[in-house]
Description:
alpha+beta, Arc Repressor Mutant, subunit A, Beta-Lactamase, Enolase-like, domain 1, 3 domains, 5-stranded antiparallel sheet, 3-stranded antiparallel sheet, 13 helices, 10 strands
Amino acid sequence: MIEFRVSPRERLVLTAIIEIYIATGEPVSSQAVARYFENREGLSSATIRNVMAALDESGLLDQPHTSAGRVPTPLAFRYHVSQLQQASLGGGNPSSVGQLSEQRREQIDDSFTGVTSAQQYLERTSHVLAEISSGLGVAVAGSAVQQILEHIHFSRLTVGRVLAVMVTRAGTVHDRVLTMDRELSYDDLEMASRYLNENFRGWPLERIRAEVARRIEAEQAEYQKRLEALQDLCRSGALAAGGAGPVIYVEGVANLLAGELDREKLRQLLVALEAKQRLVELLNAYVDARQREVCVVVGLDEAMPAMQNLVLVGAPARMGLDSTGTVALIAPTRMQYQEMMQAVSYIARLSDRVLDSPPQ
């Protein structure tokens, strides 16, 4: 939690300014704050002006123009988020950050109707978060969580199509239809299954891939020494390492076009968002898959300078027994923080129910 020396009266006025600014997008005057309270808190206009001046000196408010009202700074939004999280801790459920409204919960549940696979969940998540936040929805399929090979079997389906069935040490069964560049015989598939099961049973999958690649490279080097006359034929490139990164789904870039960023900052932002790996790095930097809590980062300029006026709200999501992912939204600082934190938390926890449910 972020700690500030803010008095109860200053906290009251700052919260009002943030809520008014989120609702209007305009600098907030002392008169607007007075109208907001309608004398319920016993604060005079003079008192409100003095409190706003103190918040200004503390770096929580900024005055764009001499005659204009104040706007909350990124520091103020961070403080606002910390207060919401602190309130949720008092309620004993830090991951949910309060209760999502019934209407919003029904909207999310309806959006996930028919979703039964991790890919469908990730695609739908990025769409739903973009829709409800008017920002960017992001869903990342993270790397496998130390999957250990117990047994693997290959079966020929049709020409160029092979069914791979793998059982992990945790008892999870994975099946996938593979499209092959060349035809493999039953003997080829049996030999591949036997080789993997006899040599690598009990190995982590990432280590198996690395070791197989190492052995292939060593054998290829040996063949090149012995068969120099066939060197050109050996340079097919079929054994080059793939290095596919995490699967990432992004939706809602168009939402940011209507935001408050000026044209140059928007151009820089879109360039940054095109590099999907940067988003993966950003999420990995701020969202810890070992935790089940919502993470909120106001002002992303430390990770990406072009994103200084944006907020990240993210949470880890379980994608089955052996893997995790991340769901997040990236939106302008003028957003409904509590509702968006609730929505991200709800969708992250929804993966347990959606992906464990039998197909309808």
